[in-house]
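Shipment paperwork, digital attachment
Item: protein structure file
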Amino acid sequence: MAQNRSRATLPFLLVALAIASACAPAVVQVQRGAATAPTATTGGAFPRTPDGRPDLQGIWQARSRASYGLHDHAARAGMPAALSAVVEGDIPYQAWAAARQRENFDSRTIADPLAQCYMPGVPRIMYMEWPFQIFQTRDQVAMTFEWQHLFRLIYTNGTRPPEGLEFWMGDSRGRWDGDTLVVDVTNHNARTWLDMAGNFHSEALHVIERYTMLEANTLQYEARIEDAKVFTRPWTIRVRLERQVDSTRLMEYPCRAEIEEARCDFEPDPRTWYVPARLPAVGTRPTVIPPRLGQQAESGVDGRRPDLSGLYLPDRSGGANWGLEPHPSRVELTPVGTGVVIDPTDRLLPYQAWARQEQQSRNAPERGYDDPTAHCFVAAGVPRSMYVPSPLQVIQTPTHVVFLFERMAWRIVPLDGRPHISDAIRLWNGDSVGRWDDDTLIVETTNLNGKTWLNEVGDVVSHAETVVERFTRIGAGAIRYEATVTDPLVYTRPWTIAFTLERQTDELLEAACLEDNQDLQHLKELKDAARQGTASRSER
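Attachment content:
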């Protein structure tokens, strides 16, 4: 099975590569073989959507090692051998750019943006060895990637890209040319590479992608590269993508979180993190069926269910990201909020004594470094991801509801009645399964890892957390959101929050939190100073 083959963890490979490159002469790729994948044809027997388009939905994976080097290259430390994916056989660099590529190659262990888990950009994300899942509607094609919880949102509704904005992942606008999905990708920045070998581009990059079915579970992917600032002429990348028919669940690889945990920059909390050897019994997972909450809404994608799709922004009056309970403005400039707790009726979280003490400790300035969102880890957890004050996009198909978050993270909710995954697999956003109860979408999320905070003031959850969410359309412009949290390690009873998701008229953009993080070093200095002060007092 293709998904089960080994997938290299790139940043750790780059560390090994640094050791090898320190004692080896620079190597420039000389042999330039042309890509040998066959030319795509259309008209074959493959699944189609109700409107007659090829059905691209499912989990896919590249059958290529082009992400290590687009040209023919022999194996090196951390870089497996591969045949060229360049159709013309050669990348037509301008003279200065060829020299720059050689410099990139020599410094790739630290200069490659993926060494810091930054966004790979397009087209590189498409031929990395990590799987991704496609969701397809009439107006949009969404791609969610296992690597770093990234996503792409391709608009197929004829709209144009914004002017004057640059993105790590570019801006994607698609159209159908017969049975081929053609995507124009513009608005790039100049900070991504095309592979580990240091092939690069400028902000003038224009990528024209073509997705063509070769057979039921094989896509030919072509990317025409145009960049007059770097290349002497356009050129083309071609690789195959295979549908992983035996895979039903996209996992997550939170690259940055894994690296920081491995080097102890993000320290574990044994009271809340999932540790299999010490996992206490916390009872069975609850299943809550709420009463019907909403009024009749517009019909959804199957003609019967409410249509939840669209761009939304959480109502900020409750201030949930700065405290779930009612809270005044604080000295630290935390915004005032009315709170979002509706049960218990006193609107206070039913903490156990140790957990309330921990929450108060987390609210100290020196604990800000311990909040995972300060590190820009990819997933805020559940329910926090729903009330971080930034836009989110809902993609709804007959089989899934997908949430795409501006901070470059996703949640996938299957609606096919599947069970939860193994309890031993713990994820930042957990494992969500959904079902309809009349006009309310109910989502149960388990398998959370206990590493997230509920907000910036440190409200606590653990690995024992289970969340049951209710999404109910209230008219054409809003969703009533409720979430009931059960966590017997932290709280004395379940509790519920509620607020409104307001529909927006613009488009989802990209927030490059990790890539542009300017705050983490300051927070680390505060934490280090507090530790040093504690150590000094204990020595007296």
